[in-house]
Amino acid sequence: MELYRDPGVYRQGPGLYTLNLDRGNRLYGEDLVEEEGQEFRRWDPFRSKLSAYLLRGGRAWPFARVHRLLYLGASHGTTLSHLSDILPQARLFGVEKSPRTFGALLALARRRENLYPLLADAHLPERYRAEVGEVELLYQDVAQRDQVEVLLENVRACAKPRAEILLMLKTRSVTQTATPREVLRSAERALGEGGLELRESVDLAPFARGHFALVLGAPG
Ligand SMILES: C[S@@+](CC[C@H](N)C(=O)[O-])C[C@H]1O[C@@H](n2cnc3c(N)ncnc32)[C@H](O)[C@@H]1O
Questions:
Q1: Cβ of residue 173 lying under 6 Å from some atom of ligand 1
Q2: Residue 152: which region, alpha, beta or left (left: phi > 0; alpha: psi -120 to 50)?
C-alpha cells in the first residue's frame, strides 16, 4: 500500500484505499485489506465521486489543514465515511434532508466519533450555522436544480475566508435541455459571479456520467 495523497489516501494497483477508522466493519460491501497490522478500505469510484475525482486525474487535495468540514447531501455516508478515515482528528458535519437516509447516517456516526450528522435542508443554513460554525472545507453533493445557489448560500453562512470548496455538480439535475458541458460553463460563470475562485473542473465519466467535480476557493 502506497501513500497516494496526503492526507489519508492510499493506492494499491488500480484501487484507492483509506485507513479504516472503524476496524473490522465495512459500510457498502467494500473490500478490506490487512497490511502490516493496519486495515484499509477500498474506495469505490463508482460509489463515491471524490474517489472518481482522484482517479480522473484531479490535482487538488485541499484537506491538509481541515479541522471542520461541512458536507451537504451526506446520504448514507459513503463518501463521508472515507473522509472520516482521512481526517480522524477533524469534526465532520454531514447535512442530509431525507429522514429515511438520515437513520443510516446516524448509525454510522455512532461508530465514528468525528461525524456529526444533521437532519436539515441545505437551503436553510441558518438552521445549522450555530452548531457548525465556520469551516475550512465545504463539500456539496445534493443533485438539485439549484445546486449553485445552495452552495453560495452555505459559503456565505458557514465558510471561513479562503475556505476550500468541492462541488459535485450533477448536470442533469439542473436541466436536460442543455448539454453537460453547457451546464458546467453556466455553473462556472454563476459561481464566479458569486465571488468564488474556480481552480479545477474534472469530468467524472465514466464513473459518474454527466457529473463534474469543481474545486473552488471562497473569498478572503
Ligand atoms: C447523490 S446523493 C449524495 C451521495 C453522497 N454524497 C455520497 O457520495 O456518499 C444526494 C443526497 O443529497 C440529499 N439532498 C438533496 N437535497 C438536499 C437538501 N436540500 N438538503 C440536504 N440534503 C439534500 C439527498 O437526500 C441525497 O441523499
A1: no
A2: alpha
Nearest ligand 1 atom to the CA of 47 is 8
State the total domains in the chain: 1
Give distance in angstroms: CA of 30 to centre of ligand 1: 21
Distance CA 25, CA 145 (A): 35
Question: Can you give the residue range of the structural domain that contains 188?
Answer: 44-217
CB atoms within 10 A of CB 99: 8
Q: Which of 11, 12, 8 is nearest to 21 (CA)?
A: 8
Q: What is the pTM of this model?
A: 0.98
Residue 95 placed within a domain: yes
The C-alpha cell at 92 is 465532520
Q: What is the pLDDT of residues 75-119, one digit of tens each?
A: 999 999 999 999 999 999 999 999 999 999 999 999 999 999 999
Cβ–ligand 1 contact at 12 (below 6 Å): no
